[in-house]
């Protein structure tokens, strides 16, 4: 029991620390995105609101990563891992459920919708893929002396246009021009302080997957979906099970570094697989299965349980692997001579 | 060297070599075959591999250390004997890691920009050579053997082993030498005023030219007298006797006899005199007209001595006030930078109020071409507006040539000359003023605030900053504010370059610590499954470094944007010092536990 509590403390402590680090990183990125050199950054309320929006993904990612750290902590213990693992599974499920419900609660209780908008700096020439823009002066949304160069295929007319006034629309992150001037989206910006925040492809895809999974879990936890909150609860429990069953991998061989790499890769794969239903072809397949299910006497609702079932099956496969592997006591003897 | 030293060198060296081989293989797949001369292929692969190796060195080095301490040194006899021997095994690599981090600093600052520069240069030179060959071929077909010869020669400087081109060059040169009696001159290769260039060709000095002028005057050859007098003046502007002789020769040119043959001669004489007069007129329009007149005379009377003398001079003179449109056609084949927009602030005159104002001027160039004959701009648009946002002028021009000239203050400046002469259609293309106007004398010229080389540097996109070398970044830091570009990305990249060696040292130490902690416990051979680690480990480490670079970039750019590079340094350097301390304590802890 003592070991179990120690491992749980690692899980809770590490998840809080990771959540803090991730939130801090998010805050920094948001702050840089909205930074105006003259005004020294956006209001803290705007950043806070954005962080609340990102909280579900932060909760999920920090809990999954903390679970892995807790499993590594468990490797150092001499006792049978069964009880700590069950405790970990239950705690992870509760934390995941609690964390995601809390984010829902925050959203329902009027957390304002913040739009993180790139602030267009004035006095600099900003280059877009097919345009360049220079803002002479800016007062909030009001822009003055805005010079725009636009690429125009085959047209002989002037490509530089100087607008005495224009308006910045933070919601669409665009500059709006009077008359028939086409708006200019700052999202296409090639330079400025912003390219620093373009995350590497691997990180961007990880965040995409995590955001989708957290969104899906939250959607399942909002009553009343088809199947009620039960689907959401089952999904949380089965996802936690699949994560905790990484235990089989953290003691896969007598080379802990290799085990760590395999476990990290496995968790990334798990998140990828869990986000697979976001793929249109999978969505189409699921809807086909649903149609077939409905044709067989209203079994369509059963398809709602396919997702948690698939996650649970993954966990069961790892559990099977754990049974095949030498016992933990033997592994300890072989690796640490204990 | 001790046994451990040998193992360390073997493992790290082995991983380095293996990685270099993999990167070389990757480079072979990446090779831009169509744009690369066969001559440069091996060199391109080599330098691309070197550049990639340095870019990935942190991941490669950390992978090597992880494998070394978790798989090689941590097992077998060392582990069995444990203790002291193990701690000895750690000391050498600490020195090695510090040395490699220092070498990495040199590699990032010097070797990587050099390797990347060489790699890119091979592609550029190959494309340049292909354009030269195509152009030489066309010129040869058109009968312009002098220029074809020049392009072939330039090509052979890039690809001297190409026997086929050398044979073509020799053939063209042989034919060109036969017709070399007709002095065509080489407008592109001479410098200074056209008369000075001609004087240098004709002369040894002003005195000799003056003697020839006097002799021609005595022989009643007034054109030659005027010509040599002008050349003497070009070499010695204070020579008053040359001015007097030119004036006398000019007066005598007006008189001529009246027989039939003399009447024809008089007509030719009149045409030459008129063209000659235009050539000495200071206005650009007259010089262009003079060129056309001499061009006609050259076509009709190719053997006339005066025409032979003045035609090249007129051709050079026209280059001073405009350029030929066919140069653009020729240049279009050469490598170019696309879509360059920049700020070109300077003082100007408001045509409406006729007063000097500080102009906010912006220039856009669709294509900036670096050809053998010069630097050209295609698709030019410029706009200038004052402090209140009133447009002072707005112009468009299809073509321009960038010239380096001495300004009034004696400094060399770059100018964009937008007056192009189409010698076939006999038209002159000037910039079109959509709004306002500028001083007619300089309406076809834009003074550029920066040099051509710097413009080329500025044409690089922001995303290319991440692969730019430190010297280029330092130059960009000076250049970007002048051109109106945001400076923060450049500061961020400079900070990243400076921090990378320190990061490498920190992660090397952490890799040693982690490798020891998670060392393999196989006493014998490692199972085949673990071989998977040799493939997966570098990938995981590579992704880890990409995440780390991303986090560091965000931090540095946030600090640089908020308080400049000083604040970024004040935060990031102590942070790295803390990380280094942590890494050192971590390794020391492992060493103590081992002993």
Q: Would you kindly provide a written description of the structure presented here, covering whatever features stand out?
A:
The complex is a heterodimer of chains A (about 350) and B (about 600). Helix content of chain A is about 60%, strand content about 10%. Chain A is α+β, with helices and mostly antiparallel strands. A 6-stranded antiparallel β-sheet of chain A has the order 1-2-3-4-5-6, with no helix packed on it. Chain A is elongated, with a radius of gyration of 25 Å. Chain B is α+β, with helices and mostly antiparallel strands and about 600 residues long. In chain B, strands 2, 3, 4, 5, 6, 7, 10 and 11 form an 8-stranded antiparallel β-sheet that branches. A 3-stranded mixed β-sheet of chain B has the order 1-8-9. The radius of gyration of chain B is 34 Å and the shape is elongated. Chains A and B meet through α1, β1, β2, β3 and β4 of A and α3, β2, β4, β5 and β6 of B.
Query: Could you tell me the number of beta strands of chain A?
Result: 6
Helix share bin of chain B? 55-70%
**Strand content bin of chain A:** 5-15%
Structural class of chain A: alpha+beta
Broad structural category of chain B: alpha+beta
Overall number of strands of chain B: 11
Apparent shape of chain B: elongated
Give the N-to-C terminal Cα separation of chain B: 22 Å
Number of helices of chain B: 19
- Average pLDDT, all residues of chain A: 82
What is the CA-based Rg of chain A, rounded? 25 Å
Biggest interface, chains and residue tallies: A-B, 53 and 60 residues
Strand content of chain B: 5-15%
Give a summary of the structure in a few sentences.
The complex is a heterodimer of chains A (338) and B (595). Chain A is of the alpha+beta class and 338 residues long.
